[in-house]
Every structure is written in structure tokens, then in C-alpha cells.
Sequence to fold (598 residues):
Amino acid sequence: MYKENQELATTFTIEGNQFLYNGKPMRILSGAMHYFRIVPQYWRDRLLKLKACGFNTVETYLAWNVHEPKEGQFNFTGIADVERFVRLAAELGLHVILRPSPYICAEWEFGGLPAWLLRDPSMHLRCYHKPYLDKIDAYYDELMPRLKPLLCTNGGPVIAMQIENEYGSYGNDKQYLEYLKQAMIERGIDVLMFTSDGYDDSNLQGGTLLPEVLATVNFGSQPEEAFAKLQEYQPDKPNMCMEYWNGWFDHWGDEHHVRGHDDVADVLDRMLKSGASINFYMFHGGTNFGFYNGANYLGKYEPTVTSYDYHAALNESGDRTDKYYAIREVISRYAELPDLVLPPAAPKKNYGRVRLTQQARLFDSLNRLSEPVWRRCPETMEQLGQDYGFILYTTRISGPRTSNKITIQEVRDRALLFLDGVHQGVAERNTHDQTIEIHENDIVVEIPSDGAELSVLVENMGRINYGFGMKDPKGITEGVRFERMFLHDWKIHTLPLDDLSGLVFQDLQPEEKFTPTFYKGVFHVDETGDTFLKLEGWTKGVAYVNGFNLGRYWEIGPQKTLYVPGPLLREGDNELIVFELHGTQDPVVMLQDFAELG
Fold:
């Protein structure tokens, strides 16, 4: 067991092509799991399974937006208690690698950057830009003193820390990288520092601080090619794959990604045979609870699903897979496996059908969810101090008017349009021409003489977490036009949906299709356990259990169920709320004992 005691301080250094722990050669056998994607009650279980698989190290990112959700307001409790996670790893005899770089990618909302950075439209991200660096300094002033006692140089388990993440795929500002390095050093971080990047020339030239800082590479295959390229730039240091992509993540509307365990084991064996160190990304993926999923944009906007199963060695609910045992067998050829009794799999429960018997329509509940503000033009979420969720823009169009189209210029990311409360259509970010022709039952509607109320409900489906499109404000970013005319004078409701306690529910009313509605039901539990929420017959929305936001669902898949960890439940009655955007024919869900991800 590690203790925070300078007398027990250890060293982790590099000599030639090997790592040394207290002067003795050590190969890093690490697996990634993110504390913020796992309910804290399951941290020990996942870490024990990591160790039993033959790993000696756990690696985790630190998500800035989790720890500073509002500027100057810090959170290191509950699922954000990274210190507890690290100490727990230490109790189990594991080393720890931390990656606290301001940006983490990780298919996480905005790559871990806090949304409030975008309140300043002139903000430049991930470069030597003083307003950006000032925000990092304020965060590091709070973060680094928490991490310092956990360093191996202070008797803790942390052997290495990352400066920035895959920076070579974004920029080449070496002054910025050097600033981050010094910011850590000045706050007492004295363990081995590293960068991690793809293994082509561009990445290794742009993202590293060679030769002073260890460079590591990320890949999923062809380890010989990757390490050969790394050796061209760094011939005198150990080879380290900081991210061995043994699975992959899913976007809404795509197929569920699967990678066979034989292929994963073969690449692992080749790496270990070469003497390299390795970090599995991911060993256990977990879940993008709430609104924390990220998105990609490489010509098309692609939001990531709620599950971060990643087809990893441990699945989303923490169960061992065929890949787990294949990895363990390979590691056993190169390292001694610990003699551990594995904890049993968490029980999976089938609680059956749950009928949601009450409802609260969004448009009837607006003033219970937020105070409206009035603006001449639509403003983004960030301009109004909102981070995640939905935002509603309302204005009046004078009449009479002949029929025409409404254009949103431009929507981030998906908008539902209503005229006098009647649904007219959906405008999506990927549609080049984001226009809606006002119609009802395929009949063109004119604006009546007394005018009509236009409402635009916009969903933030996740900020871009990778690449050149990261500056990604949400809501309506330009304006709304009726034909060529921009519409002005908007009432705006910010709807982060982080507190639903003010909603007033009533018995179910006759269904109004395409009316965004909160549905509530109660289900009874005699014995708690993991379960999976299936929303067959529902279209798109968000689900909450006992006030906890499980994440998004969408009928287009590939994800068909939402993971409900047992610790979120309680014996007796439990509350389920589903916010459905488009309506359902029958407000019934299933709580079943297996996941459906494909």
C-alpha cells in the first residue's frame, strides 16, 4: 500500500531504452479507465479486475469540464473525486498514469474543455493565447496541489503525467506545450512527463517536446511500423504505446464497432515481444452519462452515443469478456499474474415493464425550468451561460403572409420547429440547406392575419472533441429567416435540464404527436442490481433514474438500451423520467438484464 510519506518516496526514471522503478527495470502494463465514466461504487471492482488481468498500472484522463463546470466553481466530489480513485488504485498496489492536460479528446464533450470558454468569441483554444492560458492557470492552481501528494516522489502511486494530448493532430505551437510543462513544474509536479501522438511525421513534429520530454505513440495495429517511426525521433528511450486502441466507439446512426479478441491478442503479443510498454485504450470504457458525450466533425457532424463500451476487455457494465481472457493469457507469457480472487459480476436484474403514468409537457413547464430572457437576435448557449441540454427560441411572425420557408442560419445541432405549438419539422446540422417549409398534413399554411408564434427548440448533441472544428458553440449561431427576412425580438429559455424537481406532473392526456413531453413512472425494486433501460417505441430523448441523467437515447441506434448501474437504484420505489422529443404511442419501457448495443 502506498502512503503519502516523503520517506517512502520512489523514483520512476528512464535509462536508455527502459523504465526504472526505484532503479530496477520495469515494463508498464497499463489499462485505461475513466473515473468520471464509472459510478464510484464500482471503482474498486474495475480496478481489481484490471490487476487480475496482469496489469500493473491504471491510466486515466482528468476532465476539466467535470472539475470546473462553472468558471471558478470546482468539483472534486462523488464521481469527480479523482483523489479517491487514485488512492484506491494505490491500495490495490497499482501504479497510476494521469493525463490532466487541459484537452483530453476521449470522445468526451468538447474534449474535456469547459463550455464556458466559448463565452468569449475571440477565445483561441490550445495555443499560447493569454486569455486561454489564464483559465488553465486558475484550474491548475486548484488541481495540481491535489495531485502533488499522490506523486511517487511523495510516496504516492502516480509515476507519470501527460503535458498535452495528441497535440500534433491539432497544432504546432511549441511555446504552448512548453508553457504547460512549466505550469506543472512550478506547481510541484516532478514525476516523468510525456506527450502522446499519432506516429506519423506531422504528429511527432508538432506534438512533442523532444528530446527533453518522453514521446509516446497511439495506434491500434502495425506496432512495428509505429515504433520504427518513433525510434527515428527518439532512438534512446523506451517504446511506449500510450493508447493501444483495442476497440472503438460508436456514433449515432452507425453500426456498433466490434474487434475480435484474436486480433487484439496478436498485436499485444507482438508489442510485448518487442519489449515495449503499453496502455490499453480502453481497458474499461464505461458510460457517457448525462450530456457528456462528444462528437466528431471531419466533413460531417457525428455525435457519439451514450455507451462508451468500446468493445473493451470489460464491457460497459464491468463484466469480463472473451477479450479479457485473451489479453490475460498473452500477458501471462511475459509477467507473473497476481494470485487474486476476482469479485463476482454485478447481478443483472430484469425488473420488467414499467408504465409511465404521468406527464408534463415542455411548453406548459417552461417557467418551472428557467427564467426567460429577451434578445434582439438569437444568442448561443454559451453567450447565455448555459453549458448543455436544450434551448428554446420564441418569436412572432406578423401576418398575413403567403406561405414560405423558414431557414435557421445555422443550427447547432438539431432543431424542432413549431408554429403556434404545432410541430412543423426538424432542421439538422448536417443538412446543407437548413430550411423548413411550413406545412401541416402536406398542406402549405399561410401566416394568418393576426400572426403566429414561432418556436425553435434546439438540442446540443455534444461539442466536437477532436480536430479543427472544436470551436463549437451551441444553439442558433447566426439567425432565423422567414424567406429573406431575418426575424428579431426573441424570448429565450435556457433548458439545461439538470434539475427537474420543479416539474408538475399530471395524469396522462391524449397523445399529441411531436409534442416534447416529460413522462414519469415508478417501479419497485426488492433487490438492487444493474439493469438496462430499453425504450422500444420511443424516438429520441433523455432518461433519468432517481434524478440521475442516464444519457441520451435515439431510435436510429446502434445503442438500444441505456445502462443503469445498481447503485443508482434503491430498495422500494424508484422514479423514472423520460424526456421524449417526438412522442410515443405507448409510454412503456423495459428494464431488462442485458444490454443491446448493436
About this structure: Residues 352-361+503-592 form a domain with the Jelly Rolls fold (CATH 2.60.120.260).
